[in-house]
Design brief:
By secondary structure, the protein is mainly alpha-helical. The protein has a domain of 264 residues. 63% of the residues lie in helices and 3% in strands. It contains 24 helices and five strands. The strands form two sheets. A three-stranded mixed β-sheet has the order 2-4-3. Strands 1-5 form a two-stranded antiparallel sheet. Helix 2 packs antiparallel against helix 4, helix 19 packs across helix 22 and helix 20 packs across helix 21.
Length: 570
């Protein structure tokens, strides 16, 4: 099948054409990828989540690398644009294949971004405006039991090979699935989702949803009763070798982990001092934790889920109105972004989904409500500058807008997490620099977000690599960074709710190396901006920040190995 797909999407022999033929072929192998990108709109399939499906995707990567080798040998990447695309394609596919060959996909049980989470999320991205749309939803929903059985087959192969997820992931995912299976609604989350369908289709769709929920319940019980005991002795952390492989996957760089760990501790001490000063402005005489607790319980808040959604929409709309023409030059499609409420049973962190390539589905931010009725705003403002505008939305929507100048691959599947999260954290800092976080509560929320990202580097590297808290640590100096200690340390210096921090710890254990990309990615963006500014000034030129922003956002994806150099040259 892979050879047939490659032959049907030849599209030329330059790196950009090879990259885009890879996107088309992968979209046919993995229909969820097609939904994310807005491709193949009539396709009602789900991906093959069995080991065979994973092997097909890996084989597509190998064949694509072979085509790239041949094109480069023929001199096809001498053009600068082709060179940049070739470098990204090679690095990304090599990193992905390293993960595959290590069998990591055979133990993909985690509380965020697992194959099952992705299957559910795809329904939130599908069109539901017409009866025909709902027919497509129904056909795809009917395939959920097969997809879940294939996923179980993959995990069973992992058990047979001794490749298991850590027990914290299993316990958390079993609990999440329990939330999705809310018995108050036939079909649980799936049943609730199809209640928005036209009345004449609702009964049929509810029956399909119940079958999907029954399959999920079967998977949940197997994870609890069979997989869980098998994984009970598996470590929650991954060790230096596995961690380094994942760091390359998430950052596009072979980072010096010990240097990054030491740098994060410097950031911790600097941010702790800034937070103490800001807490004085919020509640004189308070520590940062006391001030943030007050803001959480007694500070300004939005009452009701819908009111919170509208508040966040207004925050993004205002940011676009203010930044357009001054610090960014945005095309009309890029200015459209929606605020949404995340489905029940999501992880605790807000998130963003990019627009389809043709912008028929806009970019969307998602707020997990976690059963709350009131939403304190002190930490939401900076978070929505991160998730929405000028953060993830401006970068990913601008990438889509310039896709025809680059390649579809460079603005979609080639995305490097540390680049994306680094820009979003840079966006929070930019809004602080521009004076949007002068309210002491909002600014303490911003500093707390920065502290959370510094703590992520500390606990993620410390836990997985097996490092100690340093001698100048205020918490257990000289002792190893173990998961329970990491959670306690995190809670002492990050003013977010306990249930959020519990979810975060499980996230770091399940996605090793991902969480460090925020702060280290921001460092790369800041270094690139300062170097570009210095280069302009050395030439006697004024540094135009708006022009730099737009050029930087129009490069497409880059790994951290390349990001600073490319930003410096702008």
């Amino acid at each position: 099948m892979v050879e047939e797909l490659i032959n049907s999407h030849e599209g030329g022999t330059t790196p950009r054409r090879i990259a885009d033929s890879y996107v088309q072929a992968l979209a046919e192998l993995d229909p969820l990828t097609a939904v994310y990108l807005g491709l193949n709109p009539d396709d009602d399939r789900l991906p093959d989540l069995s080991p065979a499906g994973d092997r097909e995707i890996a084989e597509l990567g190998r064949r694509t690398l072979a085509r790239l080798d041949a094109a480069e040998a023929a001199g096809a990447s001498q053009d600068e644009a082709e060179r940049r695309c070739a470098r990204l394609l090679r690095e990304r596919l090599t990193a992905e294949l390293a993960v595959h060959e290590a069998g990591e996909n055979l133990r993909a049980v985690r509380n965020l971004g697992s194959p099952v989470h992705n299957v559910r999320e795809v329904f939130t991205l599908m069109a539901t405006a017409t009866a025909e749309d709902w027919e497509l939803v129904g056909r795809r929903l009917a395939r959920v039991p097969v997809a879940l059985a294939q996923y179980r087959e993959t995990l069973e192969e992992g058990v047979a090979r001794g490749l298991l997820s850590g027990p914290r992931q299993v316990t958390t995912v079993v609990g999440q699935f329990g939330e999705w299976l809310d018995p108050a609604t036939p079909g649980g989350w799936f049943g609730e989702f199809v209640q928005a369908a036209p009345e004449e289709q609702r009964a049929t769709l509810t029956g399909i949803a119940v079958a999907a929920a029954d399959a999920l319940a079967t998977l949940r019980d197997w994870l609890r009763d069979v997989y869980g005991p098998a994984a009970a002795a598996a470590p929650d952390t991954v060790g230096r070798e596995r961690y380094a492989r994942w760091v390359r996957y998430w950052t596009g760089s072979d980072l010096d982990l010990d240097e990054a760990y030491g740098w994060a501790w410097q950031q911790f001490h600097e941010l702790a001092a800034q937070m103490r000063a800001e807490a004085e402005k919020v509640r004189p005489g308070s520590t940062p934790m006391q001030a943030m607790k007050w803001l959480e319980t007694d500070g300004p808040s939005i009452k009701g889920e819908e009111a919170a959604r509208e508040y966040l929409q207004g925050l993004m709309d205002q940011a676009i109105a203010d930044l357009q023409g001054t610090h960014f030059d945005l095309a009309e499609p890029v200015t459209r972004v929606e605020s949404r409420l995340a489905p029940a049973g999501s992880a605790a962190a807000p998130y963003y989904t990019a627009p389809s390539l043709d912008f028929t589905r806009p970019g969307r931010t998602w707020l997990p409500t976690l059963g709350r009725e009131a939403f304190p705003v002190w930490d939401l403002v900076s978070t929505w500058y991160h998730e929405g505008v000028p953060g993830h939305h401006l970068q990913l929507a601008q990438w889509n807008y310039v896709a025809d100048r680059l390649s579809t691959y460079q603005v979609s599947l080639g995305g490097v997490s540390a680049n994306l999260e680094g820009w979003a954290l840079y966006a929070e800092r930019l809004m602080d620099e521009l004076g949007y976080l002068t309210d002491p509560g909002h600014r303490l929320g911003y500093l707390n977000a920065q502290m959370m990202r510094a703590l992520r580097v500390i606990v993620d590297i410390g836990m997985h690599v097996g490092l100690d808290f340093p001698a100048d640590s205020p918490y257990k100096p000289g002792e190893p960074v173990l998961p329970d200690d990491a959670r306690e340390f995190f809670g002492q210096y990050c003013g977010l709710p306990a249930e959020f921090l519990d979810s975060e710890l499980v996230r770091y254990l399940g996605l090793p190396g991902q969480a460090i990309g925020y702060k280290l990615g921001e460092r790369a963006w800041l270094r690139g901006r300062e170097a570009a500014k210095a280069a302009h000034e050395a030439r006697g030129e004024a540094f135009d920040l708006k022009a730099w922003h737009m050029a930087a956002l129009s490069q497409g994806s880059l790994g951290l190995d390349d990001l600073v150099a490319e930003l410096t040259a702008l």
